[in-house]
Amino acid sequence: KAGVTQTPRYLIKTRGQQVTLSCSPISGHRSVSWYQQTPGQGLQFLFEYFSETQRNKGNFPGRFSGRQFSNSRSEMNVSTLELGDSALYLCASSFLAGAETQYFGPGTRLLVL
Amino acid sequence: KNEVEQSPQNLTAQEGEFITINCSYSVGISALHWLQQHPGGGIVSLFMLSSGKKKHGRLIATINIQEKHSSLHITASHPRDSAVYICAVDGNTDKLIFGTGTRLQVFP
Fold first, then answer.
1. Which pLDDT tens digit goes with each residue over A54-101?
2. Best B34, B96, B103 residue to mutate vs chain A (most A CBs within 10 Å)
3. In whole angstroms, how far apart are CA A64 and each of A19, A60, A102, B51?
């Protein structure tokens, strides 16, 4: 089975722009979670989608949003980018929601200038 | 105080040494995860456990629910074990809460 894939792998944007990141889960997995990793804050939970519904959300401003499609692929969008949004964005998939082993993608490294 | 604390923050070892990384948490959990992150950024899930002990190859993870503590042990460490090891808990809100990680370097 192919692993979790994320596109793009690297991205450079400027302040005020918006960005959309994509995550394709392992085939058959219905849950996709998104995480932000920065040197200062470490790994933080953004949100989780299961069967096209947002199941859970972390403590991030409304500029961060996401969605999941019927094929379980997920996108996250960040609008009005700020310098502090520079981070590694990771997605992870699991077969079910909740306390499940998660399989992580390689991440998208976003740099905001 | 962080809800998930790891120790030590940094660890160096000689090849072959036995390594222990500790994780303490202050919230109720349904499960605890040990993750490994290599310098390129990729994260691999090593263990998910809610009680007792699990073993995979040279890695052993234990959890004590009453004491809210987990340990990750690496036997016969090898330079390829060099990575950041992250403890994460599935809290009652079903969101993963991460520790700050332990950076391990194993020298030949």
1. 998 999 999 999 999 999 999 999 999 999 999 999 999 999 887 788
2. B96
3. 10, 7, 22, 35
